[in-house]
């Protein structure tokens, strides 16, 4: 009888230990959301690092036709991941993940030089309280906008080779002018842990505004020396932050 009790206790302890070990497993699904004027290809360096480290990565190609369409594309990727997700957004992609991040599969949000509105907030109005970094967008008659190709290198990707920035400039995805101004009704960062990478040399979004957003969310924050395209130019530093978020979001 004593031996049976001992065996039962040992099995209970081993089961508990195994459960604890399983609970300590980091989230292994990462969904990457690009920002305005860009497409998902800019995430290649980050994605390759994460994949090498054992993560399952999905890159959203949101159409930038409306916030609703972009959130729908992101939510689709979250559902298709098949498990808990770390959701990452760059620039305008921060607005997208602030909405789509309410999905129950999302365990944490990572903002890379990104906008992070509160519910029913006009983020452009809040942003206007800080000196603008640049304002070199070109609006088209069809209600879309892009960055002036002549200033794209300095505004968006100053720390990338000129040829790379030039190609990004001519392959921009036109963004609907209303997408970034659409208000969300529930900000996921109120209920999900957040991480934030401030791009200290950002010429598109004022780095002080980025710091303000990170502080307001209570984010775990790092500062990375890089342009607005920091996710391209400093892929390792960005991937490291994402992996820290995944490890912390059990």
Fold blueprint:
Layout: H1 2-23, E1 29-33, H2 44-52, E2 56-60, H3 67-80, E3 85-90, H4 93-100, E4 106-112, H5 123-127, E5 137-139, E6 144-147, H6 152-156, H7 162-170, E7 175-176, E8 194-199, H8 207-217, E9 220-224, H9 230-233, H10 235-248
Parallel strand pairs: 1-2, 1-3, 3-4, 4-8, 8-9
Antiparallel strand pairs: 5-6, 6-7
The mean pLDDT is 90
Strand order of the largest sheet: 2-1-3-4-8-9
Element-level helix/strand string: HEHEHEHEHEEHHEEHEHH
Shape: globular
- Give the number of DSSP strands: 9
Q: Can you walk me through this structure?
A:
This protein has 250 residues and is α/β, with parallel strands linked by helices. 40% of the residues lie in helices and 17% in strands. It has ten helices and nine strands. It has helices at 2-23, 44-52, 67-80, 93-100, 123-127, 152-156, 162-170, 207-217, 230-233, 235-248, and strands spanning 29-33, 56-60, 85-90, 106-112, 137-139, 144-147, 175-176, 194-199, 220-224. A six-stranded parallel beta sheet has the order 2-1-3-4-8-9, with helices on both faces. A three-stranded antiparallel beta sheet has the order 5-6-7, with no helix packed on it. Helix 2 (44-52) crosses helix 10 (235-248) and helix 3 crosses helix 4 (93-100).
Would you kindly provide a brief summary of this structure?
This protein is α/β, with parallel strands linked by helices and 250 residues long. Helix content is 40%, strand content 17%. The model is unreliable at 1-23 (pLDDT under 50).
């Amino acid at each position: 009888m004593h031996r049976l009790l001992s065996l039962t206790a040992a099995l209970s302890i081993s089961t508990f230990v195994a459960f604890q070990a399983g609970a300590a497993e980091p989230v292994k699904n990462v969904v990457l959301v690009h920002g305005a004027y860009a497409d998902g290809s800019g995430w290649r360096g980050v994605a390759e690092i994460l994949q090498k480290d054992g993560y399952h990565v999905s890159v959203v190609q949101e159409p930038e036709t409306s916030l609703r369409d972009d959130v729908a594309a992101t939510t689709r990727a979250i559902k298709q991941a098949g498990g808990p997700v770390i959701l990452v957004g760059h620039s305008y992609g921060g607005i997208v993940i602030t909405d789509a991040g309410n999905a129950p599969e999302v365990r944490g949000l990572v903002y890379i030089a990104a906008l992070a509105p509160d519910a029913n907030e006009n983020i452009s109005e809040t942003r206007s309280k800080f000196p603008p970094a640049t304002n070199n967008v070109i609006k088209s008659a069809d209600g879309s906008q892009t960055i002036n190709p002549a200033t794209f290198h300095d505004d968006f990707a100053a720390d990338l080779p000129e040829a790379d920035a030039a190609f990004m400039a001519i392959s921009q995805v036109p963004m609907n002018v209303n997408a970034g101004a659409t208000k969300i009704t529930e900000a996921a960062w109120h209920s999900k842990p957040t991480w934030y990478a401030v791009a200290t040399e950002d010429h598109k979004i004022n780095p002080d505004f980025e710091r303000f957003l990170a502080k307001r969310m209570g984010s775990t924050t790092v500062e990375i020396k890089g342009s607005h395209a920091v996710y391209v130019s400093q892929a390792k530093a960005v991937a490291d932050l994402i992996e820290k978020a995944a490890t912390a979001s059990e």
